[in-house]
Amino acid sequence: MRIKLILFLLACGFQYSFSQTIKPVYPIPSAKQLAWQELSYYGFVHFNMNTFTNVEWGEGKEDPKLFNPTALDCNQWVRIAKAAGMKGLILTAKHHDGFALYPSKFTDHSVVKSPWKNGKGDVVRELSNACKRYGLKLGIYLSPWDRFHPAYGTDNYNQVYANMQKELLTQYGQIFEFWYDGANGEGPNGKKQVYDWKLFHSMVNKYQPNAVQFSDNGPDIRWVGNERGYSYETMWSPINKDEIYPGYPKFDDYRQGQENGSHWVAPEVDVSLRPGWYYHPEQDNLVKSPDSLMRIYVASVGRNANLLINIPVDTRGLIHPNDSAALMGLKSLMNTGLRSLRKKTDGIQVSSSMKGYGSDKLYDVSPRTFWAANVSDKSPRLTWSLADSRLVNAIQMQEPIALGQRVKRFEVKLVDQDSRSEVLQGHTIGNKRILTFKARKLKSIQVDFLDARGQVLLSNFDLLYLTSTHNESLYH
């Protein structure tokens, strides 16, 4: 076991010293979970039959002839997503109504029967090609619920779904994420389906072993518990995933994760640019503002989660200008607000450090190198002294999560240029924690780690000034 762990850490680029062994705190993420976590932010595309019927959930009775985008351009989607800083796009290949955006051999309800491209079209293929062209990752959403398929509600349907998975997993290149939906209602025969999750998970593991799988309980990443765009002040990546299942009625009991959870299943925050997930023309002026999106970024990526922003593509098959403008505004705020305000002349003191894991690792940018407090130091302290007073409204910290999530509680003392102080309380850190406060010119920042699951490790510490579209502090 120890040899396997050493090889795993080396593969992830982590320092390892045989004389100064850092013991992991279990559970720990797999290599593909680590790779996914580093993506931070990517996009969802809800585009399907619902786009043309102007509803959120179709019934499966819709005429395929309704699906007929007049100017579909997946290159436009990908160009906008990339310009917005997204690392990938996840497409609704089939929603609850059962209409497939590609020519599946396992359903009669698909683009094959639509007038778009005379039934020869394949939206998944076009998006796959566009992602390859512009260097974005491709993800797939395939709803297990199917309100059209006559086999739904029978054992045979599980194999139908698995066959559709195989088509999507083997014909379109590399997939970075496979997204299941927890919705489970009646099919056209009035029956509900008992899903064979073991079978579904095995298909992805077999054909796309590097892809992470999303549902309420994973197996690799999990739903955060809301669709409003935020994670929680306390957020653990570990969770007892075997106790819950997609559609679990008491999911709120698990939404913050579990400090001593049995498996590593980190959260993903999904939120739409508009009130709805699909395009509705009456919502053209209800697109979230860049300021709102930046707050969402801080409350998701900045609270140990990844952010998945949904883009409702319109009936032309294009991203509406209002949605594009909001995303470009977010990217502008990210460029400004996430820029490091650290200076090489700043001073840093720590209460203790292990040999080879000194405080210099806190500002080398890499999430794979880290400061390690001594094992005997049960309440480590970090003091950052600014060489000159600087306008700041957030600090950012990261743990080296390949060795487990550790910090349970911390306290931050801010001292401004007039020697006035304020003490803030914090809980978990995990992959990334952005702690915000009213903007002020700071002279020093002291962080006391009050409780942790084992030895305190920190891979990054940073100072930020998060701005609004009016070039003012985003936090007052």
From TrEMBL:
Domain of life per record: Bacteria
Keywords linked to the UniProt accession: Glycosidase, Hydrolase, Signal
EC class name: hydrolase
EC number: 3.2.1.51
Signal peptide per UniProt: 1-19
Function of the protein: Alpha-L-fucosidase is responsible for hydrolyzing the alpha-1,6-linked fucose joined to the reducing-end N-acetylglucosamine of the carbohydrate moieties of glycoproteins.
Family: Belongs to the glycosyl hydrolase 29 family.
Protein name stated in the entry: alpha-L-fucosidase
Organism of derivation: Aquirufa echingensis
Higher taxonomy: Bacteria, Pseudomonadati, Bacteroidota, Cytophagia, Cytophagales
